[in-house]
Amino acid sequence: METETYVDSMEFKVQELLKEVRLEYSSPLTKFVDDTVSAIKSAIDKIPEDLQVTADWAPGFVRDIGADKVEFKFKKPKSVEIGGSYSIGCVVKPDVNVDLLLRLPKECFHEKDYLNHRYHAKRCLYLCVIKKYLKSSSSIQKVEWSTLQNEARKPVLVVYPAAKLAEVPGLFIRIIPSATSLFNLSKLNLKRNNIRALNTGGVPQPTPKYNCSILEDMFLEENSKFVKKSFSGWKELGEALILLKVWARLRSSIYVHDCLNGFLISIIVSYLVAEDKVNHDMKATGIFRATLKLIATHPLWKHGLYFPLAGQNAFTEEGNERHNSSTRVNLAFRITCVAYPQLQDEVALTLRCVEKFRDGGFEEIFATKIDNAAKYDYCIRLNLKGNNEVYALGFCLDDECWRVYEQDVHCLLNQGLSDRAKFIRVIWRNTHSEFNVENGLSGLDSEPLFVGISVSSVEKAFRVVDIGPNAEKKDEALLFRKFWGEKSELRRFQDGKIAESTVWESEQWTRHLILKRIIEFLLRHHLSLLKKDIVQIVDQLDFSVLHGGKDPVSYSGRLLGTFEELSKRLRSIEDIPLRVSSVQPLDSAFRFTSVFPPEPHPLANKKVDVARLQNFTPFSVQSLEVMIQLEGSGNWPMDDVSIEKTKLVFLLKIAESLQNNWGMTCTATEEDVDVFMDGYAFRLRILHERGLSLVNREIGRDQTKWVSSDDKKLFIRGQHASMINGLQFCYPIFGPVVRLAKRWLASHLFSACLAEEAVELLVAYLFLKPLPFNVPCSRITGFLRFLRLLAEHDWAFSPLVVDINGDLSQNDEKEIEDNFMQIRKAYEENTQNRSKAMFLATAYDKASEAWTRCSPNPLELKRLVAYARSSANLLTKLILQNQTDSLGWECLFRTPLSLYDAVILLHGDRLPYLKRLLFTSELDQGKHVAHGNASNAFHPFLLPADMKGSLEQLKTKLMVNFDPLRCFVGDVEKEFSNRLKLWYDSLGGDAIGLTWEQSKKRERKEEELGGKYPVDLLRNVGELGKGFVRDVYLIKAPKLTN
Amino acid sequence: MKKKRSREKVANLVETKEEKKRDKSSKKKRKSKEKNNAIIGIVDQLGDEEEDHFQKQNGKFKKDRKKKKKEHSSSGENQLLVEKSKAADKDEVYEIPSGDEDCSQGMKKWVIEYHQSRPGLKVLQQRIDEFIIAHEAKLEQERKEREACLTEGGWTLVEHHKGRKKTTEFESGTTVGSVSQAAVEGKLAKKKSKEVFDFYRFQKREAKRNELMMLQSRFEQDKKHIQQLRAARKFRPY
What we know:
A: Beta Polymerase, domain 2, Beta Polymerase, domain 2, B: 238 residues, RRP7_C (chain B), RRP7 (chain B), NOL6/Upt22 (chain A), nucleus (chain A), Nrap_D6 (chain A)
């Protein structure tokens, strides 16, 4: 039976992954590599013996590292051997390279060449000679410089063979010199000083980094052999190494020069073998987990990772080995004490994925890219190109100037941000493609320095006052003053304490900028950087949710106050038959997730001072839905129609009562009742529980039929509103992320595809199931992850379960799974069945009936995913790469109109909320089909002429929720829904995209006979929007399926 | 204003001419041109996807009709059509009037409809009262007709009258709302769940088989899933 062949799905996926990334050693490949290596060897053989080498071969390099006495006579290398991952069969695609270890001949070095960078200089000059002769070889295309683990004083050669192999494009060979037994090991003890220039007041300082750098080369071959021995004939171990490399490469915060690299990982795995922590029965995934556990528990940086001679204990457990007299090399010497906690955190997250996810977390561990843009909450780029400060003390002393600068920036930010930040990561990559050692090291600062900050908690990051030391502690206070400069002030606090402090005064809605201000201050004050060289990714997207230069969320406090008052008044109404028992807010403005929560309207008040009305008083006022429940009664009618009418009667009575008792203005249609209060318009709705049970009964009779009465919808919206409201209090950044997400969707004309509530659930998922990340703590990071979720979630095969209060039991989850399977089955049987392409399940809606039942359909979802993917890529690029203009950021919200079949542009000045329009759309392609003039029947603002007349008249002119776009879309859909599909922006865009629906052949035929299709059709559409439509363009005529 | 109009007209003319030329050149070229025209690069990818989509549709069609030829002819027709319509109105861009004098369509209509829908609380109240009276009368009428229909056939309808509907509890005098129904349903549901399902051996067997089938189908799903993942190159973490 088939079930027998069934393997664990994690195991299966891992095998697939290995197949994909492992380099197969086919005979053409091995021949290719061997040929190239022998070509290199023969090129080296051509170098004349005893060639005199002087500093002139690379004057810049020798000058910059400050070496003297570098002349030597060239001798051939003692050996040239393949090492590295190729030799153990663990090359991971796509970067295929072969390491060639080249042993430097002892004759070229003096005994004391470990001093003052002489070794480094000679090593480099030696490579210069080889490079020159390689270049003349015909089987070599080009030779470039690179560095060993980003250490500029240790360059390596990268050789690209002239021949190419189709299966491994871009294969190159790295030539890495090794210095086996060149120097006396005891001279390179970590406590010794080997750079004479480094001393404080005549006392030489130890140079551990420098010594390690030489020791590393001396042990290179030995270590390589040891790794080879550990891996030989052990397939699973090799697979585990490949998995670890894939895992690490996906995490750019730890796969970098001061943390992990491929070689170090193979050393760690070999250590595992030496320690007997793994055995031959273990599968690759088991070894993978064991390695992670080792990293998580072993405090590497305290002892150092030493390579054992076989049989010896690798980790000497006697503390601070770094400064111990040891002749071995700490292979983890590049891991800084800043990088290690980050590594541990990343490992912990991965292990949590293994535990938490049913399928072992394959997606999260091996298929999700955890780049710095998505990982860190705040990303900063410092442009330090040509900044002399960096190498004022010289390029290389014990450590290199770039590493020292990294540390300086880290210390500074660490001290300045204190507990606001959980992790601060400073990374400055030096290598770039045009690196040329002959010219020296000054060109290595061209890439910007990256700072990533993980915030500890939003509350701490948004803190306005930092309290420093007490004024009585003079020394500390002085230090504090020195650090903070003019920002520090002496303050008296409520508890009577007088202390130094820093205050970052700012309004509630700009609190996310506090961190930015602090960082900018610190960098300018201490490192005297210019403002233009500090690029902080914080507020670049804020423009999309501002309204007239201000975030409308700032009015939310007032809105909530007004709502409280309203609900008090409603509950105290006595002149209606049934009392109001509860009042609940429904609109997203009440839970801080509305892109544009309404600003109080001057006319929606009890008292209005007409004379003081401003010029730009909007004509429309946005209404906010509020749900009311009445006390129970048995006198309600039984049929749907009568229930709805009775509700309206109640609402009218309530409105009348409010009008009489409080003087509130009310207006009503046959569906809605709106009341004005304190500048807001509230739309009242009644939830009647009987309606719910009516629905349940209907469902009971016929499972497939979904009857959604108004009551059911109201009930679900109520549930959703209260859940999201609760969530929003736990995660203060949730609201801003939702607002950006909604704005993005709307500006790409997806308003009709994805319900507002569905967006909230998608974003909620990011906060509830953040793995393999931590919970996002900034709006841009959250937004990026939202885009990636949309783009990368496997919508066709897995439901998205949003468990807000953690109240889904195992049974519930099974039920959801079953519901999902049912839909999948229905879809497979009939691909025309297009419902629920996006399956969103929650505690209140286990079958995804509420928000994504009809839309997006599979085609819409496909478009949505494609847009999300390209926007995510663009955003990542904007965050990580050196781009400072705002244009790129605007592109995220500017939709390309050429991707529709036809486009309708609207009169921007006839939209109800002018300020919400981000860009005026223009089109310079397609066929201009029609042009329309603007109507005078509607203006977004009250005109002076309207101001005349009594207050009552003025109030009646005010339009509640009047939206010409919605009217237009409604009219078009009524008329042409079988031929056209509309894509629009309900938040206030001025463009509507049209795509042709696939209509039946016969219908189309008839239309053809009528002639002039599609132009006439578009004109008719334009006619429906008289006075509102500006231009109609035809871009692509419909394709005929006949 | 007028000047601008005319300039646009000219531009349009040029454009249509150009388009005509383009139409003659191969279809593929057109496609690529459209793609290049994408206002910004970010959604280039989408262009591809969209094309994919269309190609798929074409592919389907090809399967149905077997031959590519027809597609050519159809696109030819299509172009012809576009050209025809263009030829007809090449002269100018159609002008939509602002519609301020005409209330049947567009902005004016919406504004009027908006105001008409709000006649005031009193009027609405009255309308609803009328509606409810009419509605109740209608229901009554329907009931009577039904009865009449039945009696005509020589049958008398005997209906169970519940008597006074209890809205207050006898002892406490508290109002009882519409809960009862839900409560009854809840009870019913509970009762049902008490039924024993695996009383007979064959039931047990069936249940087991069902479970196995379920597992099997899930496995099938998994396999398909993985195939799809492979197709989507999900296993390539780069």
